[in-house]
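Memo subject: From amino acid sequence to discrete backbone structure tokens
Action wanted: Derive the backbone structure tokens from the amino acid sequence.
How to read it: Take the token row as a discrete description of the fold.
Attached in line: The record itself begins immediately under this heading.
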Amino acid sequence: MQSYIDRKIFIISLIAFIGLVFILRLFYIQVVNTSYRVTAENNSTRYEVVYPGRGLIYDRNGKLMVYNAATYDLLYIPRKTKEFDTVLFASYLNIELTALKKLMQSIESNKYNRYKPNILISGISTETYALLQDRLYKFKGFYTQLRTQRMYSQRMGSHIFGYVGEVDSSDIKTDSYYNQGDFLGKSGVEKSYEPILRGRKGVTIYMVDVLGNVKGRYKSGAVDIDAASGTDITLSIDLELQQYAELLFRNKIGSVVAIEPATGEILALVSSPGYDPNLLVGRERAKNYNKLLLNDSIRPLFNRAVMAQYPPGSTFKVINALIGLQENVITTSTSFVCNHGYSAGSFRMGCHHTGTINFMYSIAGSCNAYYANVFRRILDKPGQKSIYPNYNTWYKHVTSFGLGKRLNSDVPGELRGLVPDSSYFDKKYGGRNRWKSLFVVSMAIGQGELGTTPLQMANMTATIANRGYYYTPHLLKSIEGTDTIPSNFKVKHTTNIERQYFDVVVDGMEQVVLSGTAVMAQVPGIAVCGKTGTAQNPHGDDHSIFVAFAPKDNPKIVIAVYVENAGFGSTWASPIASLMMEKYLTDTITRPLLEQRIVEGNLIDKIFNKKAQGGKAN
């Protein structure tokens, strides 16, 4: 009997103990630990992302250039779908039936997608949305969400603005802000200022039943997160000047960069051929991008202004003139004899001049022989056995103009160009002291190993216009609600060339336009200073180059122009720069015949017709 009572007490105690454990565990789950409650709530709620509108983009005069238009995503919840007329649905969406089925199957292949909304089609236009919305009740498991897409007030500025595209896996890994289906700036200022322009996503939380049907707002919307629109920005671009520059470059290959020298603000930036930026928005974006990408003959996606590396040609002579003066190897009274070129032993560099050439005319007339002599004097100073110290000094002077290095502009994709240091030639010629000044004398006239981008050439010219300093070229002028811009754009970069030498070189550049190789660049009533160049091109006709600024004193605009396969700088590049300066400074054009010749000039057809015949263009 006693053993029976003991067993009964034991069993009752065990049951009581187990009950107490369960009670304590339930208390912990429901009261102490909130993670289980959150999990339960997640199973009965649906989170809908609210996408913000991106910040607007204005030009320096407050003109709207980039804005947003409403677009929609079609979302798909496989678990809620019932049998429907797929042919009719595809016709509403203006999509092939096979494409629609393929998109649906791609989502259905992942079992985790069956109970949540998935983006089936993004970028549905307002017209398609209007047609679809009244009929969507027929198609269970599908619904829409609002988004915005970029629109452009003009068909220009593609390499400035860039484009917005869907994130990929690397974007998501780099920044946890992004999820699959989000969009971000892929190039241009859309990329440079993505954190400013993108805004902040919001979230609306809905209560749903086990079948995913919406039953209302969770906690009446009290815990929803409002979306915050992106911040507007103002660019330094002058919209009218940009449009005019693109007009002048129609049917031409090349680029132009215009800068306000006092600030480094970029007034216009053209890479030609370009493309209509509206091509890379909406549902046709991927198809259009592939078309542009595959157009190898003219490469419209390639930003020549910051990525193409050309020899600077004779425009570089002004740099060697400044260095020669600073290093006291020449003065403004120095003259050299030119006999249709420069000769040293078996080496010969041709030139179109003959006779005694003085300093001022060496710039105005662009004498090759003069600068071959100057360059060799810089490197071969009397009494020195090695050219290394002098070459390194020359190298430091050149790079102080922003050449041979990235300027760290806010134009993505910028390349550094090439100004070779002494180690470059050590490697090329097999060791130290195995190369001499004559080996590299082609750099005296901007040829040889030198490579520069149009942005660098514009910046170099801005340094001359400022008489010895530059600010990093940039596109951002201001951010909404603040007067600040990145601090690196406010840093003054100076050369160690004395001011007096810039003054005399600027006088020579004025003579280039008044009586030298660029008389077509004259602008009535405005003192223009410039330098022509013709860059040798082993793949076709030479490139036409011109750099300039105006007015001579207190300059307001600097321009660098490259026209590929166009011959002499005076033929195409200098008239383009001249017309742009007149347009910007006077808001008028007084030389309509010159403008007509440039606008109607079709160099693309000329280039490709000649290539088809297996030769150079004339």
Notes: Confidence is low (pLDDT under 50) at residues 34-42. The first strand starts at residue 45 and ends at 50. The CA atoms of residues 184 and 365 lie 50 Å apart. The radius of gyration is 33 Å.
